[in-house]
Design a protein that fits this description.
Blueprint lengths: L1 E2 L6 H9 L8 E3 L6 H8 L3 H7 L13 E3 L2 E4 L6 H7 L4 H7 L13 E4 L17 E3 L5 E3 L10 E5 L4 E5 L5 E3 L4 E8 L5 E6 L5 E7 L1 E2 L6 E2 L4 E4 L9 E8 L2 E3 L8
Helix pairs in contact: 4-5
Length: about 260
């Protein structure tokens, strides 16, 4: 049984970092010879969405040095709803409406292009078919995973003031997000090395510890499969992913915590 202790209660830390969350934006500084249309093509977004996101009514009057916010775009598909799109990008429905100047009575149309937050890079999905991976549990037996995990290695329960799951791996292994959400903290903490907190739109906070190399920053939006970081090559902390889930200052069993 692995025993680890934090010197400060997790709930206090979460309250502190949540209060200082800022949304990261991708921006582009207009260079000589560039136009709104060429910038839109470069970032593969509809030019009308680029102009709308920056409050530009006359694109011919842009000057060199103008800083443009680059939105992400999403084309509405059959059976999409504002709720399903908002959940996919880890934001609230109200925030999605504000970004697209939509009223509560507005109806989505298939093919409509929406502005959405830019999202961190996601690893390719595995090919369809096949059985879920079988890995040893804490007692050495084997069991199929009940959902995606940050790492496929053997898992052990963590005991003490900071409960969770420790997952053994090797240096360079990827640590993957198991849910959609926004990064609210990325930095060092106690004996867990570098730690990343991801908060879902439902209020669950997913904690990924033991990260040697962090690939995300505060404000980034992630989804299942996003590479949070990588394990280091040496040391006890670097050889394990420390995974824990919380909501409303209460610990949630990672085995049953929501995925997706």
């Amino acid at each position: 049984m692995i025993r680890r202790y934090f010197s400060i209660p997790l709930c206090v830390t979460l309250l502190c970092v949540t209060a200082t969350v800022v949304v990261a934006e991708t921006t582009h500084v207009l260079q000589r010879g560039e136009t709104a249309y060429s910038v839109a093509r470069r970032y593969n977004v509809p030019v009308e969405k680029l102009l709308e996101a920056n409050g530009i009514s006359d694109p011919t009057r842009l000057s060199v040095g103008t800083r443009l916010v680059i939105p992400e775009s999403y084309r509405v598909e059959k059976n999409d709803t504002l709720w399903s799109i908002a959940r996919r990008y880890g934001i609230s429905v109200d925030e999605l409406r504000r970004m697209n100047n939509k009223r509560e009575t507005d109806v989505l149309r298939v093919g409509e292009v929406l502005v959405v937050p830019r999202i961190a890079q996601v690893t390719p999905d595995p090919p369809p078919g096949g059985d879920p991976p079988v890995i040893p549990d804490a007692n050495g037996s084997t069991a199929t995973t009940g959902g995606p995990w940050p790492h496929p290695g053997p898992r052990e329960a963590m005991d003490g003031k900071f409960p969770g799951i420790a997952i053994r791996g090797t240096g360079g292994d990827e640590i993957l997000s198991v849910s959609s959400g926004r990064v609210i903290y990325a930095g060092t903490y106690s004996t867990f090395g570098r730690v990343v907190f991801v908060q879902s739109v439902d209020g669950f906070i997913y904690v990924y510890g033991g990260t040697h190399e962090v690939n995300v920053k505060v404000g980034d939006l992630v989804r299942p499969g996003t590479v949070i970081g990588r394990l280091g090559a040496n040391g006890e902390v670097a050889s394990r992913v420390y995974f824990s889930v919380w909501k409303d200052d209460a610990y949630i069993n990672p085995e049953t915590a929501p995925r997706g």
